[in-house]
Design brief:
The complex is a heterodimer of chains A (492) and B (340). Chain A has 492 residues and is an alpha+beta fold. Chain A is 31% helix and 27% strand. In chain A, the strands form six sheets. Chain A has a six-stranded antiparallel β-sheet with strand order 14-19-18-17-16-15, with no helix packed on it. The chains are: A alpha+beta (492), B alpha/beta (340). Chain A: InterPro entries: DNA/RNA_pol_sf, DUF6504, Rev_trsase/Diguanyl_cyclase, SulA_CellDiv_inhibitor, UmuC.
Chain lengths: 492, 340
């Protein structure tokens, strides 16, 4: 028996058959139940876990249709339009669903109808029934009002005026019903009867293309899965070719026999359709995920979906049959690295217009922007502001400037005489600077503007190593905060 | 002195034997003055040229400094793994700078190809992340040409490097590692070297704060910063200014070269190395002989005492002594190899 807290009282929220046999009921207080039967076993409800379980089931139901939606806390909608013939008809499909759920240990009731409302009612009040299109009215008429998916308050007020079944509501004149009980009642009614369309909004985006293979004998080995991916990708290739597209995001869904679903997604740097390459990428991904994927008793359905695709630009091969495109190699290489080590494993620097050194370069994950294979032509815009002596920039920059200890400077505004960095003392032989870099007032709060003005110095120490230091803040400023020193980078 | 001369003869004979096996050109070996060398070469030495290094005419990347190129018998091997060491992590700037100048030289020949820099998270945290603006300014490498790969673990970094080393679409691969991790052993470097050879592209293995240990790389260079000369202006050198980057280069290991030390200066404008003239002159005037030389200062490089496998007694500062693997390391290398 499961309890939940409602208005400061523990109440029964769900109970099993044995508890029902003891004449316990839902919403009964736990204290009352215990008074009747002191030996009952009560467990606190965990809505989060219930939700996770339902989502897991929804994932698993993906094997029947990509359009799976959650319905409240205890139901699933499956839009099986156009899918039933894959499972041998509606009846066979329903039986398959029920038997598989039963073997997984779930007590499931299902209904199949032309409208979501009718299916909902069929599942909850008739059980395992297939409603032929047009028979919705006959199905609903004898059912209680709860079958109309309406608010309990509406239901009680309808009952108080003597309308106790859905059929009674259907027979009643519409206008007074709408006036008295709101538009929702009629909306639900019309939806259930198919007079209005009701869309089931799927949980997950529907893949434009997907291919799958049902396996009579579950597979457990990674090599088998990889081979299957290759075969599925070969099927996918013809579809992609017909569309003139290549895959940008691919997902591999592995349905385990006992209902768990593993979803492995990966992105590609440029549109891809070659089965060999797709197989290679999944090989890396599977190798990286080896510990995380538990094959258990094996996977009985493997599906490969294209979640996103893009136009595939064909390339003319030369007469020897070789396509000369270095960028493709790099893109594929980057994809493989990313498949195994994650998206941030291959980075590309991008110059950003900013005075602050750490903002002047952004490193972004390698994307489809093809690597230029020819030296880029410099636009005039870049040429114009080029000075004769561009400011010297270090070749390595610390992710966050490292604080250093500067005991003394020759002049207040000048470079340090020596400094201590990572517990070692460095003696400054020569220094160049300062180069003053002010804070970007359009980004930072004006209050700490003074403190973040930096004076950069190039320093050479006694051994000839060259560093880039800066002093943050000014001496004698209004804020009275003593300036601090940082080491920001190293030169060659 | 007599013993040294005998030892020198023996060493030379052995090296000629090795050269014969490896297929290196015999004339690159400096002969002791007294050895009847030329007569021998023409008669009984048959050089079997094996491997890419000896077969292709442009197998070497000339560094552009005559003395160093001569010592390395033409430059750094282009299709190979090359080790560039820094003795301390704080030398990371110099080590990276030298590797990038080599990359810049390669990019002169193969313009536009991307460069991949792989590092572990540790080294990027300790020594700083490569800064594209600085690389562009100092080495002429465009940001579009740069690819970075940061791997959390050494295993992953090595895997990325192996995958990258076999690609011909990359101009060069830089793999940066800190210290002497056990996983970076002879086998791992041999794999990298073999892939670099097959692809014909260089792989630079930057090792910060690492001691020398046996690897498959044919060349090991030890790089440290050298004080820069002042900037040149029209009115003469500008006092107190810091000019072009300079490196002190020590050949730690090479099949052909004799150990030596060089001070190179990188010219970012022409993207070329110069040897610092003053230093070379000083060195010629006051060389650091490992054994006392009887010859004059004309060609001080072939101080052949340094090729001995054991350091000469009483010269603890000799570069050769520092770069030879210590005794336990060497025995470990000669012993049965670890699997994997």
């Amino acid at each position: 028996m499961i309890s939940h807290r409602d208005r400061n009282a523990q109440r029964i929220s769900a109970l099993d058959e044995r508890a029902e046999a003891l004449h316990l009921k839902r919403d009964m207080g736990i204290a009352d139940a215990r008074a009747m039967h002191p030996s009952i076993d009560v467990v606190e409800a965990d809505p989060e876990a219930d939700r996770r379980l339902l989502e897991g089931l929804a994932d698993w139901c993906d094997r029947y249709t990509p359009l799976v939606a959650l319905d409240g806390a205890d139901g699933l909608f499956l839009d099986v339009t156009g899918c039933t013939h894959l499972f041998g008809g509606e009846r066979a499909m329903l039986d398959d669903i029920l038997s598989r759920f039963f073997h997984q240990g779930f007590d499931v009731r299902a209904g199949l109808a032309a409208t979501p409302g009718a299916a909902w009612a069929a599942a909850r009040f008739c059980g395992d029934r297939i409603v032929v299109s047009g028979e919705e009215e006959a199905l609903l008429a004898p059912l209680p009002l709860a079958a109309l998916r309406i608010e309990p308050s509406t239901r009680t007020s309808l009952e108080s005026v003597g309308l106790r079944t859905a059929g009674a509501v259907m027979a009643a004149p519409r206008a007074p019903l709408a006036r008295r009980f709101g538009a929702l009642l009629l909306l639900r009614l019309d939806q259930a009867l198919g007079r209005l369309d009701e869309a089931v909004s799927p949980r997950l985006p529907v893949a434009p293309l997907s291919v799958e293979r049902h396996l009579a004998e579950p597979v457990t080995l990674t090599e088998d899965i990889e081979r299957l991916v290759g075969m599925l990708a070969a099927t996918l290739k013809t579809d992609l070719e017909r569309r003139g597209e290549g895959a940008r995001t691919l997902a591999l869904l592995l349905f385990r026999v006992d209902g768990a679903v593993s979803r492995i997604a990966l992105g590609t740097s440029r549109p891809m359709r070659e089965p060999m390459l797709i197989q290679k990428l999944f090989h890396e991904r599977l190798a990286a995920l080896e510990q995380d994927i538990d094959a258990g008793y094996g996977f009985d359905l493997v599906r490969l979906s294209v979640l996103a695709s893009a136009t595939f630009d064909m390339q003319q091969a030369d007469l020897a049959g070789e396509v000369t495109d270095d960028g493709a190699d790099i893109a594929l290489f980057a994809d493989r690295i990313r498949a195994r080590l994650g998206d941030g494993a291959v980075l590309r620097p991008v110059a950003v217009e900013s005075h602050l050194p750490e903002r002047a370069v952004a490193t972004i994950p390698f994307t489809d922007a093809p690597c230029r294979t020819t030296p880029p032509k410099k636009p005039d815009r870049l040429q114009a502001p080029k000075t004769i002596f561009p400011p010297e920039r270090p070749i390595r920059l610390f992710r966050s400037p490292e604080p250093i200890d500067v005991p003394a400077t020759e002049m207040p505004e000048g470079p340090p005489l020596n400094f201590r960095w990572r517990r070692a003392l460095y003696r400054v032989k020569r220094a160049e600077g300062p180069e003053r870099i002010a804070a970007e007032w359009w980004r930072e709060a004006p209050s700490d503007e003074e403190a973040s003005t930096r004076d950069y110095f190039r320093i050479e120490d006694a051994d000839g190593r060259r560093y880039w230091l800066y002093r943050q803040g000014l001496y004698g400023g209004a804020s009275q905060v003593p300036p601090r020193w940082f080491l920001h980078g190293v030169f060659a | 002195m007599a013993m040294t001369a005998v030892a020198r003869e023996t060493v030379f004979a052995l090296r000629r034997q090795i050269a014969k096996i490896e297929g290196t050109l015999p004339e690159r070996l400096a002969a002791p003055a007294a050895a009847p060398f030329d007569a021998d070469v023409n008669t009984d030495l048959t050089i079997v040229r094996r491997g890419i290094a000896a077969a292709l005419p442009d197998a070497f990347l000339p560094i552009g400094v005559g003395r160093l190129d001569a010592a390395l018998s033409g430059g750094l091997p282009k299709a190979a793994l090359s080790e560039i060491h820094g003795l301390e992590t704080r030398d990371a700037g110099a080590v990276a700078g030298f590797a990038l100048s080599l990359t810049s030289l390669i990019l002169k020949q193969t313009p536009g190809l991307p460069v991949l820099w792989i590092g572990t998270s540790e080294i990027f945290r300790e020594a700083g992340f490569p800064y594209a603006r600085g690389l562009h300014a100092s080495f002429g490498i465009e940001p579009e040409q740069l690819l970075f790969s940061e791997a959390p673990r050494l295993v992953d970094a090595l895997w990325v490097a192996e995958e990258a080393a076999r690609m011909t679409a990359l101009a060069a691969v830089i793999l940066e590692i800190r210290g002497n991790p056990q996983r970076l052993d002879l086998t791992a470097t041999r794999r990298l070297h073999a892939r670099a050879q097959a692809a014909g592209r260089p792989v630079f293995l930057l090792r910060q704060a690492a001691g020398p240990e046996p690897t498959a790389a044919p060349v090991r260079l030890i790089v440290a910063s050298a004080p820069a000369v002042p900037r040149d202006t029209i009115a003469g050198p500008l006092a107190g200014s810091i000019g072009r980057p300079a490196f002190t280069l020590t050949i730690g290991k090479s099949r052909t070269a004799l150990p030596g030390q060089f001070t190179l200066e990188w010219n970012p404008d022409e993207r070329a190395f110069n040897e610092r003239a003053g230093e070379a002159r000083d060195r010629a005037k006051n060389p650091v002989p490992v054994v006392s030389l009887s010859g004059g200062g004309k060609n001080p490089a072939p101080a052949s005492g340094a090729v001995l496998a054991f350091p000469a007694v009483g010269s603890p500062i000799s570069p050769a002594a520092r770069d030879q693997p210590s005794r336990p390391q060497r025995t470990a290398h000669l012993g049965p190899r670890r699997a994997g």
